């Protein structure tokens, strides 16, 4: 008799949601599989199931007072006339997702910068991320070193390239594993990123709130 084995990797919580309540061991595998399949069929018929544009992922909730007040204050907007939402996960324009506390590469004009995501929010339907921007130190064939900092920048979600693997090698120094598509360029990753012809796009988010460029914030969330 073969043991029940679900290959679900990072989806273990999704399977355990139904598996933990099943007590009929005679049809355990069939019952769990049926419940998981039913949930997936329900998910694919939702209105935004195949939305691949940059934006917040469900569940989307009303932003906390701390996040809402931070965004409105930094953009010189008054409270009460703007819809501010937040989520723990967001879709990226280049594909993939990022979550809070992820380290990401993002576009700043024709160069790339790195930083850690502290909040994913939307203001009047325009998605953005609050990122603590790190200072570039050096790079190698497949990795780069960055000095971690607390300065925050408001970045349109469509400008985030990808989430990356990283580790803190020393106090306030982070080592980033450079994605394959960005490897093999000159030492300064920030300048070499333009070599792969990343097109500079005007941020609809920035123009919608009257900003010609992103503003750098030093206040902590």
Main β-sheet description: 8 strands, antiparallel
- Label the CATH architecture of the largest domain: Roll
* SS elements, strand count: 15
* % residues in beta strands: 25-35%
* Strand/helix succession: HHEEHEEEEEEEEEEEEHHE
Described by the principal axes of the CA atoms, the overall outline is globular
- The average pLDDT value, as a whole number, equals 77
**What ranges have pLDDT less than 50 throughout 5 or more consecutive residues?**
185-221
Report the CATH topology name of the largest domain. SH3 type barrels
Cα-atom radius of gyration = 21 Å
- Count of discrete domains: 2
**Count of helical stretches:** 5
Helix content: 10-25%
CATH class of the largest domain: Mainly Beta
Secondary structure category: alpha+beta
Report, as a whole number of angstroms, the end-to-end distance.
54 Å
What can you tell me about this protein's structure?
This protein has 221 residues and is of the alpha+beta class. The chain folds into two domains: 9-44, no CATH class; 55-217, SH3 type barrels, CATH 2.30.30. The chain has five helices and 15 strands. The chain has helices at 12-19, 28-44, 65-74, 189-192, 204-208; strands spanning 55-56, 61-62, 84-87, 89-91, 97-99, 103-108, 111-123, 126-133, 135-139, 143-147, 152-156, 160-164, 166-170, 173-177, 216-217. The strands form three sheets. Strands 2, 3, 6, 7, 8, 11, 12 and 15 form an eight-stranded antiparallel sheet that branches. Strand 4 and strand 5 form a beta hairpin. Helix 1 (12-19) packs across helix 2. The radius of gyration is 21 Å and the shape is globular.
